Amino acid sequence: MDKLLDKVLLETDLLELKANPNKMALGAVIESSLDKGRGYLATVLVQEGTLRQGDMVLCGSYYGKVKSIFNERGQKVEYAGPSTPVSILGLNGAPAAGEKFNVLADEKEAKSIANKREQLIRIQGIKTQKHMTLEEIGRRIAIGNFKELNVIVKGDVDGSVEALSDSLIKLSTEEVKVNVIHKAVGAISESDILLAEASDAVIIGFQVRPSVDARKTAEKEGIEIRLYSVIYDCINEVKDGIEGMLEPEKKEEVTASAEVKQTFKISKVGTIAGCLVRDGKMTNKTQVRLIRDGIVIYTGELSSLQRGKDAAKEVPSGMECGIGIANFNDIKEGDVIEAYHIIEIKRTL
Fold it and tell me: Residue 155 is part of which domain span?
């Protein structure tokens, strides 16, 4: 760190970097958060001019008069000059990291510019929404059961909101897509509930809580609100939810095979095959396929399974039995009847 600071100072001297402190301040936002009891707190770096308590600050689509300025140690200061990082209170929202801020002389002008920027952001959001295309419809049909999970993310710190949103989007698969339709710093409000209702979304709150009215509206409309204080808990629960939306993988398992030794034709019943169970255990409720010379001739279900004259629930390997196949009578000596069942395996990400 000492070497880095020395290099910065050296470059400053060589490049003759200077800033005018005698002008209205401008700079960039480093971080923003919702401070409990105090409101929106923005950490900014003053790049030019001097930021003073009482200045009207415009930052993106937010504005406000600076109520308090705090240095890196949390101590209250009256002003901040160029190259000084400070935290300020007074903005009406939490600007994104990297947003530029300016000090304006008139509150009316700041409010007007902030409102216009907010309108532009909304228009841009509408324009960037992806509409369904024929190619997208074809892709979803080809995949099969395509599902979407819409999420609204609210948090106390801009960095946490961005990190959580990016992590959730990365959980998307070909079958399940995670859409973060709205993300912001602040408490969960009634407008968030209405947006969730309109878009069939789940609300995720990180280190924030819903207001009383928002909670009542959510309970009334049946909107799910998940609250977390650890980011990994949130990611893991959403991951489990997505895994539950995935279609299970189906795997076939052969349970028994029997060789046809003799066939019997019984009126009103059909053809019964006298078999010797070669492998596994033949049960009376199973799927079977008839194999002749290594080729599958028919796939269906057992209609009957007998040991002698009595019906049997199961016949183990090495025992003889009578087998009837539902809706199929073309059974010949030497055929192999193979029993199997389908296992559903839960898929994971």
Answer: 134-245
